[in-house]
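DM from R.C. (forwarded with permission)

"hey, sorry to bug you on a friday — could you get me a structure for this? deadline for the figure draft is monday and I only need the backbone to look sensible"
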Amino acid sequence: VQLVESGGGLVQPGGSLRFSCAASGFTFGDGDVAWYRQAPGNGFEWLASTTGNGLRTYYEASMKGRFTISRNNALNTLYLELSSLETEDSALYFCARGPYATIDAWGQGTQVTVS
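My reply, with the result:
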């Protein structure tokens, strides 16, 4: 199982970013995938999840409206779009495989700095 994030970077407050997570080594469309983040000194924070077919999405309450999770099973890719970014959104962002709180594989993370 391999998950590889890309698309992080430096962005100004109020800006937007779109991440990708390329999945391989398993049948991507078979199950839930999710995005988490970890800011310096903090634990992992769940952001959003989507079911295997992408028809259902779930968000941490404070993220809904600013973050959008989506997936393209034909491309084995998970996405996260972030808008109206704030300095507090600076963190390492991870994609992960599994239902909420039942993660069995993580990507290496992609850094976002809002400044």
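R.C.: lifesaver. The chain has a mean pLDDT of 95.
me: no worries. The radius of gyration is 13 Å.
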